[in-house]
Amino acid sequence: MGFKLVIVEPPNPGARTPVVETWPEKVREAVPNVDVLYCRTIDQAKQVISDADAAYGDIVPELLDRAKKLRWIQSPQAGPKAGYYHIGLIQSDVVVTNMRGIFNDHISAHIMSYVLTFARGLHIYRDRQSQRKWQKGYDTVYLPEATAVIVGVGGIGSETARLCAEFGMTVIGVDARLTEAPAGVSELHRPDALDKVIPRADFLIVTVPETPDTQGLFNRAKFRIMKPTGFFINIGRGATTDLTDLAEVLKREDIAGAALDVYQVEPLPPVHPLWDLSNVIMTPHVAADGPYIDDRRTEVFLDNCKRFYEGKPLRNVVDKAKWF
Question: Considering only the top CATH level, what class is 4-101+292-310?
Fold first, then answer.
């Protein structure tokens, strides 16, 4: 027996993924007797979601309230924005799956570019180049003697750990779910041990999603227990890090530097003090950019459609109360 699927475009044009428009036909080819409806607006979705069995997109409260048969929602992202997991969705019996796993190689490569830049002083030499200064002098970090503390050892964190270990680094993982250390991780700790391992970090690398437990987790208190020679890297979610506190410790050089791809407010306002700090590397939320993302996103969605039709376990099921 088939099922009814409603695909809902995000209201923000900048968040739309063009490949999604090709999915209705691909789902029909892959799954027998499926009824797929593509909705460009919330109002369109309101008219058709009442008897839908499955949905893709941001199923806001006004849609969920109308969905009387909904059993599965595919999130468009690995870590959606705050508010996606609203109270009605959390309390419902609807299963939510996400897109985790499709960005692992791209984001881990981005992280390693930060690590290598800080280790060799490329950010400093780049600034000197723009000033036409032939000036040597930077205390390089010898990676085989360095320790990376990776907070969040999911797919991205695990791949980053593997790469760090390949450079000879000691890797300490902190994760709420894992019970066994993945390849490259020499120690694995629970989140309650975070304050004990942060002082050991030459590179404190944050890959965790935004959750009720991680909002504002990295603040003045955490930065103060870092090594003064340590570097802070965040590619998880902007809401995990208090940028005012971070800017203060960087200006005082209480830590050696920071690299950021995500921010509390995006775009980062031009007046923010982080723009003027030479010990900061900032990229505009591009760590996930790279080839094959659309193919991978499509593969996860189509595979879950087949699994849903066949009554098999879905991929990437989310703990809705924890948002990941």
Answer: alpha beta
- As a whole number, the mean pLDDT across the chain is 96
Q: Alpha-carbon distance 253 to 233, whole Å?
A: 16
Better pLDDT: 81 or 91: 91
Question: CB of 171 within 8 A of CB of 150?
Answer: yes
Q: Give the separation between CA 122 and CA 131, rounded to whole angstroms.
A: 14
List the single range of 1-15, 59-73, 250-264 with lowest mean pLDDT: 1-15
Residues 6 or more apart in contact with residue 155 via CB below 8 angstroms: 100, 101, 103, 104
Does the pTM surpass 0.90? The reply is yes
Task: Assess whether the region 4-101+292-310 and the region 104-282 belong to the same CATH fold.
Answer: yes
Please report, in angstroms and rounded to a whole number, the separation of the first and last CA atoms in the chain: 30
**In what helix (H) or strand (E) does residue 205 lie, and over which residues does it extend?**
strand 203-206
Q: Which numeric CATH code is attached to 104-282?
A: 3.40.50.720
The domain segmentation of the chain, as residue ranges, is 4-101+292-310, 104-282
R_g of the chain computed on alpha carbons: 22
The first and second tokens of residue 304, run together, are: 């879950």
